[in-house]
Design a protein that fits this description.
mainly alpha
Length: 110
């Protein structure tokens, strides 16, 4: 018998464990897990919710896509996470500047 695929609850538990101790770069320095949970709550479909709650785990923790595959996460979840982690460095820096309330950097335009 094939083991059951991970559920949304499993993805939440994994994300919470992986982001434990991390703080979100906001004035409140809230626990980081609040960010992926907020993103997850904007989706209805379970696969989308799993991808949303795990979307930063690949970039910010030791988790790798192969770990998700080995754990039985559906291909659509792993594929969505892979797409979300393919952000360029300049896009990432621009996002971080917005989070901190800083104006966009125009250094690249020179």
């Amino acid at each position: 018998m094939r083991p059951a695929s991970p559920r949304v609850e499993d993805a939440i538990a994994l994300a919470a464990r992986l982001h434990s101790g991390q703080r979100y770069p906001s004035p409140e320095a809230e626990p980081y897990i609040f960010h992926p949970l907020r993103v997850m709550l904007s989706f209805v479909e379970p696969a989308e919710q799993m991808a949303a709650v795990l979307h930063d785990a690949i970039e910010d923790t030791e988790l790798e896509l192969d770990d998700l595959v080995a754990a039985g996460y559906p291909a659509e979840v792993v594929g969505a996470i892979e797409c979300l982690t393919q952000v360029t460095l300049s896009e990432s820096l621009a996002m971080r500047r917005r989070w901190r309330g800083l104006p966009p950097s125009h250094e690249a335009a020179s």
